[in-house]
UniProtKB/TrEMBL annotation:
Family to which the UniProt record says this protein belongs: To bacterial alkanal monooxygenase alpha and beta chains.
Coiled coil region boundaries: none
Keywords carried by this UniProt record: Oxidoreductase
Gene3D superfamilies the record matches: Luciferase-like domain
PANTHER family assigned: LUCIFERASE-LIKE MONOOXYGENASE
Record-linked InterPro entries: Bact_Lucif_Oxidored, CmoO-like, Luciferase-like_dom, Luciferase-like_sf
Name the UniProt record assigns to this protein: LLM class flavin-dependent oxidoreductase
Amino acid sequence: MKNVKFSTLELATVVKGDNLAGAMARTVESAQASEQYGFERIWLAEHHNMEYIASSATSLLIQHVASQTKQIRVGSGGIMLPNHAPLVIAEQFGTLETLFPGRVEIGLGRAPGTDQQTAMALRRNNLNTSFYFKDDVQALQQYLSADNHTSKVRAFPGEGLEIPLWILGSSTDSAYLAAELGLPYAFAAHFAPAMLGQAIEIYRANFKASEQLQEPYVLICANVIPANTNEEAQLLSTSLFNMFCGIITNRRAPLSPPTTEPIYAGIAEIEQAVQSMVSCTFIGDTPTLVSELSEFIARYQPDEIMTTNYIFDNQKRLDAFRLTADIFQKINNN
């Protein structure tokens, strides 16, 4: 088994009893812990009209996180490109790359990261922008390339910086696009695992080498809840399950303390819906997670696993970064 890199995804989630500023502070702590324990990168996700997620102004939060760390790569997971003009993203991330050279990257998604009404507000009532995702990705590449110096429209800062781009997805459409453009591919198995195997096969089978990438590169995002014992990990994981219940029932709430069992226990429809979203979730002590993640990695052969961390207790959450790093070191040393 090849060595697998490990990284983390942050949504700057508000926890019960705290606020948006506290969520941002926890995000910085996540980045600092990730850096301390050897994580490859930390990505921040763009979401809108969500009261308990503080990462809507994604590039600004990336700047804050990068300023509070020293070497870990910091990027977007993702920037929902149809919400933005490619030139604006080139300028924003060109600024970030100028401030933090060699540390910035851009994960790009097609979805709005919100509800349809908010998407209309973001896109000025033009919901057709998602149909031009490929064109927008290529426009962004052009703005960031040195070849753009003869264009009438140029990105300053940005031009010539060749900031790495990634394609994010949860479907086969994104797999085809990432393969066609020769870009690394990040699959959102942490909430939409259904097409994971099929999408990876399509990406690898259709990959075309590019200036940025010569061989396919697959990142899989999964929920990983480590603890000192299996029992403790199962208890901590109820915060994650209850959060997904809120998403499914449209009763969103701050990330809440663990419960003895999920709040939807016994409600078959919700149990089934939550399980379909979180089937790529790994819960347990170190030996359990080394075994289960090793099997998962052997099956899909990813180059990298990006972990989420929805643990309510702040110290246990920070401890989870140390445990996660130890788990991947053991996997890679086997």
